[in-house]
Amino acid sequence: MIPGPIEISPSVGAAAAGAPPSHTSPGLIAAFGNALRGMRQVWRADASSQPFVIAGSGTLAMEVAAANLVGPGDRVLVVKTGYFSDRMVEILRRYGAEVAEVGAEVGDAPTVDQVRAALAAGGPWKALFATHVDTSTAVRIDPEPLARLAAEHGALSVFDGVCAVAGEPFEMEGWGADLCFTASQKAIGLPPGLALMVASDRALAARQARTASPPPLYLDWLSWLPIHRAYEEGKPSYFATPATSLVMALAAGLAEIFEEGVEARWQAHQRAADAMRAAWAALGLRLVPKDGLAANTLSALTLPSGLKPAEVVPRIAAQGVLVAGGLHPAIRDTYIRVGHMGVVIHRPIDLERTVRAVAAGVAGDAESAVAAFRRAL
Ligand code: PMP
Q1: How far is the CA of 98 from the centre of ligand 1 (A)?
Q2: Among 117, 125, 127, 169, which residue's beta carbon has the most beta carbons within 10 A?
Q3: Binning pLDDT at 50, 70 and 90, where does residue 123 land?
């Protein structure tokens, strides 16, 4: 129940555990093509967009975003909501970008008006970066107005969807977003190891227009583009060896999402999160995110004063449930994080067990928390 790596389904596990296919085998080519088409559906992206599947973690996806879109002297605005937006700032600076930041107190997010004002105060902007759900605070922003604001300023909009994709609504085409990336070990429900992203045709064009200072070869979309196109056309191809077992798992995981339906999966995350929040309220645990900003993929819970994650997390683990400690440096010692994404949202029995374990960890009343959970579900 940590916010990733999460549990995987039996069919994803089986797909990943087969004999590792060759990168040119018909089965792998078919799975890769299906996975790319499936990603467009999950991201709600149009046919002109380009999905990429590159071996690496979510941080690699962040590097790929920066390396392809940003060069020395480019102005970018980062909307800051926690630890992972700080990481994005650091990465962008290493690529030579001039980074402006618009932030808020821990647990809060800048308003759309504040972002609008920050854009109006500077520029010209190459891109706006925002974290859909910051896993360090569980703060969720609304990407839609930010994507529109970026477009109004002629800037690309880039979303870190690592703790959101497949768990929170996202409409790449409808909102005009230019890039959204995630990592396989989160709500999409695979083992760790894949950086997954979908780029708009505008984002690809921005890379193609950059002739000076090309990105490192492995990070360059243009290295991968012919390979990904070939896989969608059902043809073998090679640039660098893909994580073939994980690609098999990706195709299986996406197929499961489509069985349920993308929107149904978002709604199931919402229901599970609402029920968990009802339990936290019954236990008297305050959420780190301010009202209306709490993500559906995880809960960040402020501990009663005097309790520290270093004692509470092991007490919860003693009940057989693994949750995470704090991550945001400003509040690290005051809160814990409980993931609720992927297969577990359809297992109320495990969610209840988590509620009971957390209740034990904070010496709260498990029965009333479980009752609140059941009523809300
Ligand atoms: N962004 C967000 C929002 C994340 O939650 C994480 C990982 N927890 C990352 C980026 C980095 O991903 P990884 O740990 O897979 O490198």
Answers
A1: 23
A2: 127
A3: confident
Pick the atom of ligand 1 nearest to 131's CA: 3
Query: How does DSSP assign 328-377, residue by residue?
Result: STTTGGGEEEEE--GGGGG-HHHHHHHHHHHHHHTT--HHHHHHHHHHH-
Position of tokens 């599970």? 272
Among the atoms of ligand 1, which is closest to the Cα of residue 134? 3
Cα separation, 316 vs 72, in Å, equals: 47
- Name which residue sits closest to atom 9 of ligand 1, judged by CA: 58
DSSP for residue 215 = P
Ligand 1 surroundings by CB, under 6 angstroms:
4, 57-59, 84, 131, 134-135, 160, 162-163, 183
Q: How far is CA 146 from CA 24, 141, 359, in A?
A: 40, 9, 38
Region 65-94: what's the mean pLDDT? 97
Can you say how many angstroms the Cα of residue 127 is from the centroid of all Cα atoms in its chain?
A: 19
Closest atom of ligand 1 relative to the 62 alpha carbon: 10
**pLDDT tens figures, 176-206:** 999 999 999 999 999 999 999 999 999 999 9
Give start and end residues of each alpha helix (H) in the chain.
10-17, 26-43, 58-69, 83-94, 112-120, 143-152, 172-175, 201-208, 221-232, 244-260, 262-282, 309-317, 348-361, 366-376
Residue nearest atom 13 of ligand 1, based on CA coordinates = 58
Determine the 3-state secondary structure of 179 from DSSP: strand
pTM over 0.90, yes/no = yes
**What are 258's strand-pairing partners?**
none
Residue 28: the pLDDT is 98
